[in-house]
User: Which sequence fits this backbone?
C-alpha cells in the first residue's frame, strides 16, 4: 500500500509582514518552513511505514525552491518525493491546487502502487482555508476524515480505518473503508527529528519534478485560470500600539499598582 | 634457600613475559583509536610532563595527594634498588656493594630512609582506604592487593639488609648502622645465628612480591604507573573547552557509540585513570545524585575496550555496547545527558583525562545518528536551526531590547567593537537589563561600538554541547561568514558561552577574533581611565560572586569580575566555599539550561544554598544562564530579599545612577 502525504512550503508567518501599500505579504528574506500541520501528517505516514512496511510518497506543489521542503521529507524517511512545479500551476486557489494534487496522486497510483491513504495537514498557515484536503478527497472520490487526532485502528486486511476526530469540545470516532483522505491536527503525534546520515543523503538526492507535460491537465482547470477565487485585499487589522508602564524591574510593586489603577479606570477589573 | 639464579632466572623470565604480554595486549588496543595530533610542541609537552607527572603538581593540589607523591617519588628512587635486586638475582656478581663508598654509603642511606617513607605512606593509604575511602567503591581488591605487595616489598627490603647487618663484624657494623639506620635498628631483632635464614626468607619474599607486582601491573588500575606519564605528555596543551569538529560526508556515522570511534588519546585516557575519584567528587551531576559519574564513564570506556578489543581488532562487531544499561563497560543514556560540561572533572583530574569531550561525542551519536534525545530538546533544536535562538522568537525581535536607545549598527572599517548581545541579552526579559546597562556603559566610556541587530545569530553553544554538531556546524559557518564579511575583529560579549564559542570554537573554522568578555572590558576601561568612578554604590549591600564555568574554568578569567565589583562597591565580594577554578556549576551549561532536572537535588538549589551561607544581599554573576539559575533558585528557597545582579549592572549602578 502506498501512503501519499501532501506537504506545502510556507513562509514562516510569525516573521511575515504585510506591505501596507500593496496589501500583499512581504516575502523577501522570509525563511520558508514546512507547513507545521503537514509535519504531523508526514510523521503519521512514517509511523505507519514503520508499523506496516508500506511505502510513503510526499508530494508538494510549488515553485522550484520548494524542493527544499521535499528534501526535508526525504531526510525523515519518505520513499518518494515529487515536486509538482510548472509556471502554469502558479497562482492557483484551493480548487486548482486540489486538481493538480489529485492528478499527481492518480499518477502515483498507476506508477507506484495502490494508494490507501492520503494525508494532509488540517490547513496551511499561510492560506488557512482547510479546503485542499477535502478538495482532493472529492476529486478522487475518497472518504474524507478531517481533523484527525488519533488513528484508533488501521486494518489492512479488511481495508478499514477507524480514527478519532478532534471537534470543539468533543471527539468523534469514525470508521471508513480505504482509501481515505485524512487531514490531521497537531495532537496526532510528535514529529521526529531527522538523522544526520539521512539528511546528508537527502541533500544529495534529486527530487523528481512533474510539470504539466507529465500531468497533462487542461490548462483551464489549473493555475490562475482554473482559480475562481480572488483575493481582493489583505491587511493587518489596526491595533492600538501599547505603552510601557513604569519600570517593573526597578519598582515591581509601584508598577503593579499603576497597572491596577489603569485597569480599574478602564473598568477592566471585575470587582 | 639463598638467592639462586637457576631458580630465580626462569621465574623472572616468566614474569617479564607475563608483563610484556599484558602490556602488548593493552597497548596494542590503542591502535584501534582514530588518529589525533598530539605530537606538536614537544618542548612544552616535556616541560608539562615534568611538572605534572614527575612534579605531581595536580596530585598535590589536594591535601592527601602528598601521600601519593611520596609513594611515587619513592617508587622512582627505589627503582635503583629493585633493578639491582633483579640483576643480582640472575647475575650474583652484580651488586651495588661494588660501588665506591663515597657513592654507596649515601645511596644506602637514601634507600633506607625512602623505604621507610614508602612503607609509612602505604600503610596510611591502606588505613585511609579502610576508614575513609575517597569514595565508597574505592575499597577494591585491586587497591589492597597492590598496597600489600608494596608493604611486603619494603618489609622484605629491611629484612634483607637487617639480616646482612646482623652478621657483620665490628667496623662494618658501625658503618652499616650509621648509613642504614632503619635496617640497622631492625638488625637488633635478629640473632646472628638466625641471620642466614632470615636473609633467605626475606630475599625470596622480596623476590616474589616484586615478581608478583611486575606480573600484576598491566592487568590492574595500577597500569596508570606506565600510562599516566605519557598521558600528561599528550594532554591538550590548551584548555579542553571545545570538542573536535566533525566531517559531514555521506556514508559516515556520527559521534561515538563504539570505543574504536574514539581517538587513540581517548583510549589512552581510559588506561591512565588512577581511579582516584577526584572528578566525581567535584562533578555537579554526581554530587546532586544524578546517574553521571565521570570516573565511571572513563572506567566503562576502558572495560569496554578490553572486552571488545579482540573482536574489534578482527574487524567484528563489538559485543558489549558502549551506550546502554549493560552495567560495567556501558555508559547509560541518562548519565550522558546529565553533564553540564562544567569542566570541573577535567580541572581536578591529576592525569589530565578529558572526560567532557568524550561525553559530548556520545551525545553526538544519540542526536545525529539515532535522533534520540530528551523530548524537551526537540523544540530547542528546531528553534536554533529555524530561527537561530533557543526560544524560537522571530529574529526581527532581536533589537527590541534597545528600541528605546540610540544604538548604531556595526559598520565595516568604521566601528571598532562589535557588541555581540547574544540570545539571552536580546530576548530574555531579565537579561535585557544587562544589555541596556552594557550599552550605557559603553557609551559612557566613549568607545566605538555597534551591533549586528537583526542580523545577529545565535553562536550555537548549546547545540554544540548537546551533541547536535550538524546544526552547530551550519550556525558556525554562517556566523563566521557574517563576521568575515562585516570585517569584525573585536567582539564584546556579555555571555561566557558566546565568549568561549566565538573565541575558542570558531577558531576551528579559521576565524581568529579578539573576543573580550564584558567583565574584562569594563575592568580595563576603568583601569585605563575611560570609565571614571567618583563614588561607589551601596545599593548592593554585601555581595558574593559566582564564577561561571565558561568564564572561569574554561577560560581562566577569575579576577576581572572581582576587581570590577571591588571598584563599584568599594569592597571585595565575598567568596563561596567553592570558588574560582573549584567553583560549583549553576546547572545550566552543556545545554542543561533547556532540559528538565528530575533526579536528585537541583544543581542550582545546591549552589544557591551555598551562596546564601555567605549571607549576601546581592549575588553577583557574569553570565545570563547563571543569572536565570540563581533567580529561579532564590524563588524556590524563598530568599526573595536577596538580589541577583550582573557585574555590568553593578557597575552601571555605581557609575550612572
Ligand atoms: S563536565 Fe562537569 S558535569 Fe560533566 S562530567 Fe565533568 S564535572 Fe560532571
Ligand atoms: S578520571 Fe582522573 S580524576 Fe577521575 S578517577 Fe580517573 S584519574 Fe581520578
Assistant:
Amino acid at each position: 500500500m502506498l501512503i501519499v502525504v501532501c506537504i506545502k512550503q510556507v513562509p514562516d508567518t510569525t516573521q511575515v509582514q504585510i506591505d501596507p501599500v500593496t496589501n500583499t505579504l512581504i516575502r523577501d528574506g522570509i525563511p520558508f518552513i514546512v507547513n507545521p500541520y503537514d509535519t504531523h501528517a508526514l510523521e503519521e505516514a512514517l509511523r505507519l511505514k514503520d508499523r506496516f512496511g508500506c511505502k510513503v510518497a510526499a508530494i508538494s506543489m510549488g515553485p522550484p525552491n520548494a524542493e527544499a521542503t521535499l528534501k526535508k521529507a526525504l531526510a525523515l524517511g519518505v520513499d518518494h518525493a515529487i515536486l509538482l512545479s510548472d509556471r502554469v500551476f502558479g497562482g492557483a486557489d484551493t480548487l486548482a491546487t486540489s486538481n493538480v494534487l489529485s492528478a499527481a496522486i492518480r499518477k502515483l497510483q498507476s506508477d507506484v502502487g495502490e494508494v490507501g491513504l492520503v494525508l494532509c495537514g488540517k490547513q496551511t498557515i499561510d492560506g488557512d482555508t482547510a479546503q485542499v484536503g477535502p478538495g482532493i478527497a472529492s476529486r478522487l472520490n475518497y472518504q474524507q476524515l478531517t481533523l484527525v487526532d488519533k488513528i484508533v485502528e488501521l486494518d489492512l486486511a479488511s481495508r478499514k480505518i477507524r480514527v478519532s476526530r478532534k471537534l470543539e469540545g468533543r471527539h468523534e470516532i469514525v470508521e471508513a473503508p480505504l482509501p481515505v483522505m485524512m487531514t490531521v491536527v497537531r495532537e496526532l503525534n510528535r514529529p521526529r527529528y531527522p538523522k544526520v546520515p539521512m539528511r546528508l543523503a537527502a541533500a544529495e538526492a534529486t527530487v523528481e519534478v512533474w510539470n504539466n507535460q507529465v500531468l497533462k491537465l487542461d490548462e483551464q482547470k489549473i493555475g490562475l485560470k482554473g482559480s475562481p477565487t480572488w483575493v481582493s485585499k489583505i491587511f493587518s487589522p489596526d491595533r492600538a500600539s501599547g505603552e510601557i508602564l513604569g519600570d517593573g524591574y526597578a519598582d515591581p510593586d509601584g508598577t503593579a499598582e499603576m497597572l491596577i489603577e489603569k485597569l480599574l479606570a478602564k473598568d477592566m477589573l471585575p470587582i | 634457600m639463598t638467592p639462586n639464579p637457576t631458580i630465580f632466572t626462569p621465574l623472572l623470565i616468566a614474569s617479564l613475559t607475563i608483563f610484556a604480554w599484558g602490556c602488548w595486549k593493552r597497548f596494542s588496543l590503542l591502535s584501534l583509536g582514530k588518529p589525533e595530533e598530539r605530537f606538536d610542541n614537544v618542548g612544552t609537552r616535556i616541560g608539562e610532563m615534568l611538572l605534572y607527572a614527575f612534579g605531581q603538581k595536580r596530585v598535590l593540589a589536594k591535601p592527601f595527594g602528598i601521600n601519593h607523591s611520596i609513594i611515587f617519588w619513592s617508587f622512582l628512587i627505589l627503582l635503583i634498588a629493585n633493578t639491582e635486586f633483579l640483576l643480582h638475582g640472575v647475575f650474583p656478581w652484580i651488586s651495588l656493594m661494588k660501588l665506591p663508598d663515597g657513592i654507596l654509603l649515601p645511596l644506602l642511606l637514601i634507600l633506607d630512609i625512602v623505604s621507610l617513607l614508602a612503607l609509612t605512606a602505604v600503610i596510611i593509604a591502606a588505613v585511609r582506604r579502610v576508614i575513609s575511602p575517597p569514595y565508597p567503591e574505592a575499597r577494591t581488591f585491586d587497591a589492597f592487593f597492590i598496597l600489600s605487595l608494596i608493604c611486603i616489598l619494603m618489609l622484605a627490603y629491611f629484612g634483607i639488609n637487617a639480616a646482612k647487618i646482623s652478621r657483620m663484624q665490628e667496623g662494618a657494623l658501625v658503618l652499616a648502622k650509621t648509613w642504614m639506620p632503619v635496617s640497622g635498628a631492625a638488625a637488633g631483632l635478629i640473632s646472628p645465628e638466625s641471620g642466614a635464614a632470615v636473609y633467605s626468607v626475606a630475599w625470596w619474599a622480596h623476590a616474589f612480591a616484586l615478581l608478583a607486582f611486575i606480573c600484576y601491573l598491566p592487568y590492574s588500575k595500577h597500569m596508570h604507573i606506565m600510562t599516566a606519564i605519557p598521558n600528561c605528555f599528550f594532554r591538550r596543551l590548551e584548555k579542553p573547552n571545545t570538542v573536535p569538529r566533525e566531517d559531514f560526508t555521506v556514508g559516515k556515522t556520527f559521534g561515538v557509540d563504539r570505543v574504536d570511534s574514539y581517538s587513540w588519546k581517548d583510549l589512552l585516557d581510559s588506561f591512565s585513570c588512577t581511579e582516584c575519584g577526584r572528578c566525581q567528587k567535584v562533578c555537579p551531576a554526581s554530587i546532586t545524585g544524578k546517574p553521571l559519574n565521570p570516573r565511571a564513564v572513563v572506567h566503562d570506556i576502558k572495560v569496554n575496550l578490553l572486552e571488545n578489543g579482540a573482536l574489534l581488532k578482527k574487524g567484528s562487531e563489538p559485543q558489549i555496547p558502549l551506550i546502554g544499561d549493560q552495567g560495567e563497560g556501558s555508559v547509560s543514556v541518562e548519565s550522558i545527558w546529565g553533564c553540564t560540561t562544567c569542566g570541573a572533572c577535567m580541572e581536578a583530574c591529576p592525569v589530565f583525562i578529558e572526560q567532557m569531550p568524550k561525553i559530548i561525542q556520545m551525545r553526538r551519536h544519540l542526536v545525529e545518528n539515532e535522533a534520540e534525545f530528551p523530548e524537551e530538546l526537540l523544540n530547542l533544536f528546531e528553534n536554533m536551526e529555524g530561527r537561530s535562538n533557543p526560544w524560537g522568537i522571530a529574529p526581527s525581535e532581536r533589537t527590541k531590547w534597545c528600541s528605546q536607545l540610540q544604538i548604531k549598527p556595526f559598520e565595516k572599517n568604521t566601528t571598532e567593537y562589535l557588541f555581540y548581545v547574544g540570545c539571552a541579552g536580546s530576548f530574555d526579559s531579565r537579561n535585557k537589563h544587562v544589555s541596556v546597562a552594557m550599552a550605557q556603559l559603553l557609551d559612557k566610556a566613549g568607545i566605538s561600538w555597534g551591533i549586528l541587530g537583526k542580523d545577529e545569530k545565535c553562536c550555537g553553544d548549546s547545540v554544540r554541547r548537546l551533541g547536535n554538531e550538524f546544526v552547530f556546524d551550519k550556525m558556525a559557518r554562517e556566523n563566521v561568514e557574517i563576521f568575515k564579511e562585516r570585517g569584525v575583529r573585536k567582539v564584546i560579549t556579555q555571555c561566557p558561552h558566546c565568549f568561549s564559542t566565538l573565541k575558542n570554537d570558531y577558531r576551528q573554522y579559521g576565524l581568529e577574533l579578539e573576543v573580550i568578555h564584558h567583565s574584562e572590558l569594563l575592568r580595563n576601561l576603568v583601569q585605563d581611565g575611560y570609565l571614571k568612578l567618583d563614588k561607589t554604590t551601596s545599593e548592593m549591600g554585601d555581595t558574593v560572586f559566582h564564577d561561571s564555568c565558561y568564564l572561569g574554568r574554561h577560560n581562566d578569567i577569575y579576577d576581572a569580575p572581582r576587581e570590577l565589583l571591588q571598584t563599584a562597591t568599594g569592597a571585595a565580594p565575598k567568596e563561596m566555599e567553592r570558588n574560582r577554578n573549584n567553583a560549583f556549576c549553576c546547572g545550566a551549561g552543556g545545554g542543561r539550561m533547556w532540559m528538565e532536572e528530575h533526579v536528585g537535588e537541583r544543581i542550582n538549589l545546591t549552589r544557591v544554598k551555598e551562596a546564601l551561607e555567605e549571607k549576601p544581599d546581592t549575588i553577583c554573576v557574569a553570565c545570563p544562564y547563571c543569572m536565570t539559575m540563581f533567580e529561579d533558585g532564590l524563588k524556590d528557597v524563598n530568599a526573595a530579599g536577596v538580589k541577583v545582579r550582573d557585574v555590568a549592572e553593578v557597575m552601571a549602578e555605581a557609575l550612572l545612577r
Q: What stands out?
A: Helices of chain A lie at 36-52, 67-76, 94-111, 132-140, 196-204, 212-215, 252-265. Residues 94-111 of chain A form the longest helix (18 residues). The radius of gyration of chain A is 22 Å. Residues B 273-279, 294-295, 298, 348-351, 353 surround iron/sulfur cluster (ligand 2) (CB under 6 Å).
